[in-house]
Design brief:
The chain has 94 residues and is mostly helical. It has a domain of 50 residues. It is 67% helix and 0% strand. The longest helix is centred in the middle third of the chain and has 23 residues. The two termini are 33 Å apart.
């Protein structure tokens, strides 16, 4: 049994199956329900907004960094609104 497990881990089949599993899982593209959506991500979004405002007030942020933080804020908001980031693979129904 151990030899079979080692063979499976070293073969390309295992990594291909793992890749397909990860890409087809819709939770890799949106927030799972529970504390992530209700507590963790709203907290991270609030921290990001405060950090951006403080950095702008102190003039220690470049325009490109400001744009990057604003883009991250938009992504967080998309996730909190139930949207997707990226494009999940759709399973073919046979």
């Amino acid at each position: 049994m151990a030899i079979g497990w080692i063979h499976l881990k070293r073969s390309n089949l295992y990594s291909s199956e793992a890749d397909i599993s990860v890409e087809s899982n819709p939770w890799n593209y949106k927030l799972p329900p529970g504390y992530n959506k209700d507590a963790l991500y709203p907290l991270l979004l609030a921290e990001l907004k405060i950090l951006r405002r403080l950095a702008m007030k102190e003039s220690i942020i470049s325009d490109s960094e400001k744009n990057e933080l604003e883009s991250l804020e938009e992504k967080f908001q998309t996730l909190l609104n139930g949207g997707y980031l990226g494009t999940p693979r759709r399973r073919m129904d046979h």
